[in-house]
Every structure is written in structure tokens, then in C-alpha cells.
């Protein structure tokens, strides 16, 4: 263990007693902030952009995998001139931040040079600042908007909000340029192998909410993670084939992508007795976390299935809590999927039709570096009491769409190893 990331924000608070001390961290006010409106530019846009109605949609290739890397990242270009940064896309949190030379109190080794905060500071009275802080908070003398985000895995970032230009390479060569608010993080204790986090939550500070409030894209995002590693992330609502998607309403009340209503856990199409599961979707979580009872129900079904097969518990493998040895050392999950059964989360849609989120073996198992099969659904009791968190592993080979404009979450099976083709633009 140790490589997995759990991504929900547990806490967002203001740290008002700390003063940024360096001259490099006092960029000028005014300028871009007062200029207001963002500009939308399609750079080297070819005519196919228009023909295919890609319009403002953005497609971002993803790198990484569930195992062994334990996270995904996408390259975002920030600043003027734009510089590349590897960011971890997290639908469990709102704020996008970069490890920042403010200077750093604590920063980890980053793939790129630390982000130099040349942009405008966000004033403490800015609504974006308020949207990050629930309840009362006091502006300090300098009226900067300070933030602290704490994630479920214990990692955190602390810094100040700045405004800067973000350049998204749009699908097929165009690009979309916008002034957005992001965090200049000068204090990140703990390990990290990226330059920062791309916040894709529901809140107003989320990058897609910001682009959407500037009229640049619809407030919709989605991802397609491949079981072969990589995949893509997208912003906007014209990249999927609407009728193919299974939709479930998203809770208005929750700050996270939680579904309205509960689901029943089925194993190999049969009920497990686990019925009232609250689900939330979090791309910042590598694995899937179930409540103790649901975890017990699932793992005991899997063990029962294996008892009749040539697998034994791999006690010497601590990659994940439950690993099994086969008759040989495996390299690819596809060598063993036929020995395992799928599970599903089934929703009662009112009428006779049942909606399901199906999870085939390759979306709940991994092959460890010791060649064993390990279960990627974990007991989440300690990290997420009362919630069942669908993490990256179980969202693989599916298009997962977070429609904030209409408050729905959707999914459909998909080969995520290729960027979307023009089929998505038919209709
Ligand atoms: C992030 O992506 C880059 C290239 O796209 C890749 O070289 C790097 O290994 C990735 N990092 C992680 C942690 O996945
Ligand atoms: C899940 O974790 C909790 C807290 O550590 C523990 O009490 C419980 O027994 C675990 N459940 C299972 C099925 O292992």
C-alpha cells in the first residue's frame, strides 16, 4: 500500500496568521483583475473545429494508471508565456493549485520548476475566496485570500489564491485561454509526484465552474480511464453520445459528487444483502472504498468463488490487504479475469427498469508486482464513514460524466485507450 491516493477534501480553512514573506510573492494588484472578462481564443483552429461542433470542448490526454503508479495526471499550460505542469485531476475537491515559489515553506520534488506567482493576487473580498471558505473568515491586513486544503489521505496544501492565464489545448489543435483563480501552494508536506492538483469538484472555484461562468464551456466534465493506463479527461458537453449514457441524479446538498438515493450491491448478478449504499464518485481516489459491511459482503463472495479454483491467499504480498497467488506469476489482469465474476451497483429507477453500474473483474482487481491478484476494493470505514467511494479502479473503461449544469452523473462502457473519435459528434 502507500501509493494509493484518496482525494476528498476533508477540510478547507483559512490560515490568517501566516504572512507571505518574500518580495517575489507580492505581485501587483489591478491589471488583469480589473480587466475582467476572459478572452476566448481559438489559436491554430482548423475548420474541423467548427465542422465537428467541438466548439468549446476541451480534451486532455491522461497519463498514469491505477497500479503501479497509483494516480493519473494531465498536462496544463499556465502563465504567460505558458509553461507546462502535471496536475492530478481530482473530482473530490474544488481548488486547482500548483506547488509555488512564494517561496516554499515545504514543497516536494516537482516534475517541472515551481510555479512562479507572477499573476494577480485574489483579494479576500472576491466571491471566489468566499466560495472556498464555508462560514466566517476574516481577511488579514493584506487582504490576500489564503487557503488550506486537506485531503482524505492526510496530504494538504496551503497558500494564497492568484489569478493567471490557463491555456487549454482544445480538441484538434485549437486552444482556449482564460483567466482563472488558482492556488499558489507554498506548503505541501508529504509525498507527491506531480506539480499540483486539478480541482474538478462541484464548487465555484472548480476549474470547469470557472470556465463555465465565463461562458467558455458547459459546466460538464468527464473522464475515460483505460485499463491499459492513460485515457482522457474532457470539459464540455458535446463529446459523448447522449442516448448511450446511463444517468443518475446528483445530490444538491452534498459538496461532493454523491448520488441521490441508494444502491444495492450485486455479485455475479445476485443480491448480496447489501442494499442501502450511498455512493460518491472521486477521481482523486485510486481504489474503491466500501463500508465495512459492503466490503465484507463483496470480499467473502470473491473468496467463496476462489475456493473452488487454483488460487491461495498470498500472505507475503502486502500490496493491498487481500491478495491471491495463482498457479503462476501473472503479468496482465486479462490472464485471470475469467476466474472472477463482476459485481454491480444497482439502482431502483422507480419503474421496472433497473439501472446498474457494472464493475467487471479488471475494474476491481490488480496484478501486483509479485504477480499476484489483489482486490482493489478496500474497507473504507476509517477514511470515509457512511460513504462508498467509487475510485479510479472501478471507473476504468467507462466514460464517466459529471454534469453540473443539470446535476446528473452518467456513465457508459467505453474503450478509453483512444481519444474520442468523430462518432461522438454525430447527431
Ligand atoms: C505525468 O505525465 C507525464 C507525461 O504525460 C509522465 O511522463 C509522468 O510520468 C506522469 N506522472 C505520473 C505520476 O503519472
Ligand atoms: C473495516 O475497518 C474497520 C475499522 O478499522 C473494522 O472495525 C472492521 O472490522 C473492518 N471490516 C472488515 C470487514 O474487515
TrEMBL record:
Record bears the keyword Cell inner membrane: no
Q: Extract one GO molecular function annotation from the record.
A: aspartic-type endopeptidase activity
Q: Which PROSITE patterns match?
A: ASP_PROTEASE (PS00141), PEPTIDASE_A1 (PS51767)
Name the SUPFAM superfamilies for this protein: Acid proteases
GO biological process: one example = proteolysis
Q: Which residues form the active site?
A: 90, 282
Residue span of the signal peptide, if any?
1-23
Presence of keyword NAD = no
Q: Which UniProt keywords apply?
A: Aspartyl protease, Hydrolase, Protease, Repeat, Signal
The superkingdom listed in its UniProt entry is: Eukaryota
Return any one Pfam family short name: TAXi_C
Provide the Peptidase A1 domain boundaries: 72-412
The record's similarity note reads: Belongs to the peptidase A1 family.
State what protein this is by name.
Answer: Aspartic proteinase Asp1
